[in-house]
Design brief:
The complex is a heterodimer of chains A (about 625) and B (about 220). Chain A is an alpha+beta fold and about 625 residues long. Helices cover about 55% and strands about 15% of the residues of chain A. In chain A, the strands form four sheets. In chain A, strands 2-1-4-9-6-7 form a six-stranded antiparallel β-sheet, with no helix packed on it. A five-stranded mixed β-sheet of chain A has the order 12-13-14-16-15. In chain A, strands 8-5-11 form a three-stranded antiparallel β-sheet, with helices on one face. In chain A, strand 15 and strand 16 (about 615-620) form a beta hairpin. In chain A, helix 4 packs parallel to helix 6 and helix 5 (about 275-295) runs antiparallel to helix 6. The longest helix of chain A is centred in the middle third of the chain and has 89 residues, at about 370-455. In chain B, the strands form two sheets. In chain B, strands 2-1-3-6-7 form a five-stranded parallel β-sheet, sandwiched between helices. In chain B, helix 2 (about 35-45) packs parallel to helix 3 (about 65-75). Chain B is globular and about 45 Å long. Classes of the chains: A alpha+beta (about 625), B alpha/beta (about 220). At the A-B interface, helix 9, helix 10 and helix 11 of A face helix 1, helix 4, helix 5 and helix 6 of B.
Chain lengths: ~625, ~220
């Protein structure tokens, strides 16, 4: 036996202990009596309410508490009791007669004089199931010595009723016991009704808020039905015949049991296809009972009391069993309490079923209605817990969902951006490929071929040849710039360096190339890179062409200017230096460089560096 | 005795100029200058030149085929591509076919001599553009279609070779690389030669297949 099974067994033992204690407590409370009661009485079924009838013969000796059960058409609702008792002394203070256990109302005669209604004025008219009744005795009516009390007790249903021990004593001595019993049998039930209405209302609200979880709705319905059941049973007279009264009570009780079943199903998330047949059957059963009541009151009572109500109460074993099984599989504290209250209710229900069927003494009335609030409190707490849980869950779900939506959106945007870029790159690659092919096959080849022709003709250094070379150089830069992968400025400068170093070697020039201050990942816009490369190339070409320089140095690095990030390129040659005349003769070379610099928002400065020229180019990189 | 060079270039004037550049270089001997693959094959069948200098887009075929055939026929012959622009696609394609470098078609007299002599001395010129291209292959995350091929290249290239490639891509000279990595310029050269060797594959079919896979070859052929 595993420890978890042991724990469960312990839990169950605990439950049994708890409800045995509660049951015993109830029993004990019912056993309380003020003094020794009168137990010897004469009894005869009542045909009418005439006091004269009580004088007729037909008495038989009974012991109180006495239960009668004569389902006879002529013994409708009452029973006559005649009690002779002896009072050794009559104290000079108010006396009273207390009926602790009585099935419904009662009319009393003391020494042949009728007593007025009981202290709460409900005994003779209301449907006070199992309430105690206290009758004040007018002064002088009690005699020292022999007295005779006649009681006409009303039945719960035709032919069925009872009378418990009768207490005759001073009002002061009887009052506490009367009040305690009244509290247990009436006030408690009234409080239960108020309580049920009070907790059903917030549940109805929750049901409104959480429409996807109808456990709240069914709880509210169960609460209302049970409140109705108790009210019909225990509240004072309603303006309707006792038959209608009984039918309503029966219908309410069976509806309540159904709803409890549905609520427990919902609560434990159980789906049963037969639920609808049970509900249909119950509705049909109540309607059939109503029809029967309309035609044969006696048959209605027999069917309702012996079959329908016991079956209804017994059906409560099913949800109790469900809760027990659930708890056995999943021992949670809320389930534990639900099981305790559920099973306790079922035990009291079973006891009441026996009492209503007169199989055990019904004199103490029904226990179920005293226990029921416990079950409702448990339900209430559990549903609140569930509501809280589901809110928490919903909130965390919401948060999670939000985060996921944001993430997905970012992902989508990224994917879209990637797609857009790759599409752009594909277009660019296609275009580049086309241009490249055209340049190779056409323009480039032609330029190279023409250049070769010029060289072959000895016009290697002619203006035309030089222009052709510039054109070729520029084409190379353009093709590089079209390259989808021409990324960082560093790689662009690297490419340029290779070319310039080859040319410098031809011209016997020393090339210095310093890129240390250039961040590896820095890159400019594609167009800006191209213009920058063109300017550097042009500066170098000019240097080779006009300056007869022996060296060319270039340093490039990141440099912020006036708060703007940028790149600075400083080119120096050791040639003949800056000469405005030569610049003019060089044609548009220098102005061309300026225009290019301006195009990309850069600055170009020419300066004299002894010996030679110094060109400073700054380009924004932001 | 100079290095023998077989020149294959379809444009007559360019061919004539390059032929003269080679012929007038004392370190070089021009075996023949031809304008198409067929003639080149005749020359290759006759004797093994030290250097095959070939254009890629030839009227009757591709210079790539010539390079592959030469590798098979004459394993000791080094091949070089002549290109108008020296742009990545064409050069890398040629290198994958087994070429050891490239020359620009308008290269000066001196440059031609220098490049061929450096090649024969064991050097393998590599441009920043090519280095960049190779680096991109070993960084597969950037090009979604290349992961497997890129991974294979990563396996093949050593960490040191990758470092060298990176520095070349940044435009560093051999001397600077040597200084930076505390190795001699010659060692830099041999690293680059290894990179070339690892990149080259043995058959034309395989080369084309792999190049396509790697995204090196344009689908529309080469010019």
């Amino acid at each position: 036996v595993t420890s978890s099974a042991a724990r469960k067994l312990f839990s169950v033992a605990l439950i049994m202990g708890v409800w045995t204690s509660i049951y015993l407590l109830l029993w004990f409370l019912h056993m309380r009596a003020p003094t020794a009661g009168l137990v010897h009485a004469d009894y005869q079924p009542a045909i009418s309410t005439l006091q004269a009838e009580a004088a007729s013969n037909g008495w038989r000796k009974v012991q109180l508490p006495h239960v009668w059960d004569w389902p006879q058409a002529n013994a409708k609702e009452r029973g006559w009791y005649r009690i002779d008792f002896e009072l050794p002394v009559v104290a000079p203070e108010p006396y009273a007669i207390l009926l602790m256990q009585v099935s419904m109302g009662a009319n009393l005669w003391l020494n042949g004089k009728p007593l007025t209604d009981d202290v709460r004025r409900t005994g003779s008219t209301g449907r006070n199931w199992f309430h105690p009744l206290l009758y004040e005795v007018p002064e002088g009516l009690l005699r020292q010595g022999n007295n005779q009390l006649t009681i006409l007790a009303r039945a719960t249903s035709p032919g069925k009723g009872f009378l418990g021990k009768v207490y005759v004593d001073t009002t002061a001595r009887l009052w506490p016991a009367y009040e305690a019993r009244y509290f247990m049998k009436a006030t408690l039930l009234h409080l239960s009704v108020v309580f049920l209405l009070a907790i059903s209302a917030p549940m109805a609200l929750l049901a409104y808020w959480r429409r996807d979880d109808d456990a709240y709705f069914w709880f509210a319905v169960a609460g209302l039905l049970f409140a109705g059941t108790i009210s019909v049973m225990s509240l004072a007279a309603l303006p309707m015949s006792s038959l209608v009264h009984d039918w309503i009570w029966t219908a309410l009780l069976s509806s309540f049991m159904l709803v409890i079943m549905v609520t427990v199903h919902r609560l434990l998330d159980i789906r049963r296809s037969w639920t609808r047949y049970i509900i249909g059957g119950a509705v049909l059963g109540n309607l059939v009972l109503a029809l029967i009541a309309a035609h044969d009151e006696m048959l209605f009572h027999v069917l309702a009391d012996r079959i329908w109500i016991p079956a209804t109460i017994l059906s409560g074993l099913y949800p109790a069993w469900l809760m027990m099984r659930k708890y056995w599989n999943e021992p949670r504290s809320s389930l534990f309490w639900l099981m305790i209250s559920g099973t306790l209710l079922m035990v009291t229900g079973a006891r009441d079923w026996l009492a209503l069927g007169w199989w055990i003494s019904p004199v103490d009335g029904l226990y179920t209605f005293m226990i029921s609030p416990v079950l409702f409190v448990t339900f209430f707490v559990m549903l609140l817990e569930q509501f809280h849980e589901s809110r928490k869950e919903a909130e965390s779900l919401n948060r999670e969902l939000n985060a996921r939506v944001i993430k997905k959106q970012a992902e989508l945007e990224r994917t879209y951006e990637e797609l857009r870029r790759s599409e752009e790159q594909r277009l660019l690659a296609d275009e580049r490929e086309r241009i490249q092919r055209d340049m190779h096959d056409g323009l480039g080849g032609t330029l190279v071929s023409t250049l070769a022709g010029l060289e072959m003709e000895g016009a290697k250094d002619s203006g035309a040849a030089q222009s052709l070379r510039s054109a070729l150089d520029d084409l190379r830069l353009m093709i590089y710039s079209l390259d989808q992968n021409s990324g960082t400025l560093r790689s662009a400068m690297g490419m340029l360096r290779e070319r310039i170093e080859r040319l410098g070697e031809d011209a016997a020039m020393e090339i210095e190339w310093d890129m240390q201050a250039l961040p590896t990942e820095l890159s400019l816009e594609r167009g800006a890179t191209l213009q920058l490369m063109r300017i550097v190339q042009e500066a170098f070409t000019n240097c080779v062409k006009h300056a007869s320089a022996k060296s060319f140095s270039l340093s490039v690095g990141a440099l912020a200017k006036n708060g703007a990030a940028g790149v600075q390129v400083v080119m120096r040659d050791t040639g003949r230096g800056f000469d405005p005349d030569r610049i003019k003769s060089a044609g548009y070379g220098l102005s061309n460089m300026r225009v290019r610099a301006q195009k990309i928002g850069g600055q170009l400065d020419f300066g004299v560096a002894e010996p030679g020229t110094r060109i400073t180019l700054w380009v924004p990189s932001g | 005795m100079g290095h023998s060079v077989l020149l294959v270039e379809d444009d007559a004037r360019t061919r004539a100029r390059l032929a003269r550049v080679i012929a007038t270089n004392v370190d070089l001997v021009l075996v023949a200058d031809v304008g198409n693959c067929a003639d080149a094959r005749v020359e290759l069948a006759r004797a093994a030149p030290d250097v095959l200098l070939t254009d890629l887009g030839l009227p009757d075929g591709s210079g790539i085929d010539l390079i592959l055939e030469t590798r098979r026929l004459h394993p000791h012959t080094r091949s070089m591509v002549i290109s108008v622009f020296g742009d990545e696609d064409h050069v890398v394609e040629a290198i994958r076919a087994g070429a050891s470098g490239y020359l620009l078609k308008d290269a000066t007299h001196k440059e031609v001599g220098r490049s061929i002599i450096a090649l024969m001395a064991g050097g393998s010129p590599i441009s920043p553009a090519v280095a960049r291209y190779l680096l991109r292959l070993v960084q597969p995350t950037q090009v979604a279609s290349l992961p497997q091929a890129g991974m294979r290249l990563v396996d093949e290239l050593s960490a040191r070779e990758l470092e060298v490639l990176q520095l070349i891509a940044d435009g560093s000279s051999y001397a600077e690389i040597g200084k930076r990595l505390f190795i001699s310029v010659n060692t830099v050269g041999s690293h680059i030669k290894h990179i070339y060797d690892k990149l080259a594959v043995n058959s034309r079919g395989k080369a084309v297949h792999e190049a396509r896979q790697l995204g090196l070859l344009s689908r529309k052929g080469s010019g």
